[in-house]
Amino acid sequence: MKDIVPRKHKKMKNIYEDHKKFSNINFNESPFAKGEYESCTFINCNFSNVNISNTKFYDCKFINCDLSLTKLMDTTFRNVKFKECKMLGINFANCNEFGLSFDFESCILNHSSFFQTKIKKTSFKNSQLQEVDFTASDLTGSLFDNCDLASALFYNTIIENVDFRTSFNYSIDPEMNRIKKSKFTLINVIGLLDKYDIDIDI
User: For a tag on the chain, would you pick the N or C end, based on fewer CB atoms within 10 A?
Assistant: First the structure.
């Protein structure tokens, strides 16, 4: 990736960055420049508690970054990849919903919220999703691969054609969610029966 000189975006009057690499930056010390980022990569950057609202990210990657409690009011994420990131307490419901799409690998998303978000075909791999709120979200066709979903909240959630086969600790009420054609393993399917308070030997 090449480094380019920041330039003003004519329409937004904010910066525009294309194919740029940002490494080892603490945005609590160096102010984050809002604008539009396309095909950029952020490595080992600290965004914790940083306000990145009204910023657009297209085809970007975040690797080993801390985005905990980041403010995302009307932030755009389109085809964004998060890998090995710490993302505690993020409210993704505040993002720009138009074209919202991202994937997560080896991330910690505990206490975050996807309330009422439409994030079909999202991939969550090897991630911690403890106490994450998926209430009223649309997860159709998504993948939860080896994820810890302890105390994650599913209520009025569309989880049709979702693959949970390698994930664990989830509790999902089939009567309160749409789960048609979702995939589960026998050993973890007891997570669908929690409300009945019964003992099942497998």
Answer: C
> For residues 60 and 41, is the Cβ–Cβ distance under 8 A?
yes
Give the 3-state secondary structure of the chain: CCCCCCEECCCCCCEEEECCEEECCECCCCCCCCEEEECCEEECCECCCCECCCCEEECCEEECCECCCCECCCCEEECEEEECCECCCCEHHHCCCCCCCEEEECCECCCCECCCCECCCCEEECCECCCCECCCCECCCCEEECCECCCCECCCCECCCCECCCCECCCCCCCCCECCCCECCCCCHHHHCHHHCCCCCC
Chain-centroid distance, C-alpha 11: 28
Amino acid at 74: D
Distance CA 30, CA 33 (A): 9
Let me know: does 193 contact 173? Beta carbons within 8 Å. no
Tell me which residue of 100, 121, 122, 104 sits closest to 67, measured CA to CA. Answer: 104
- pLDDT tens, residue by residue, 61-111: 999 999 999 999 999 999 999 999 999 999 999 999 999 999 999 999 999
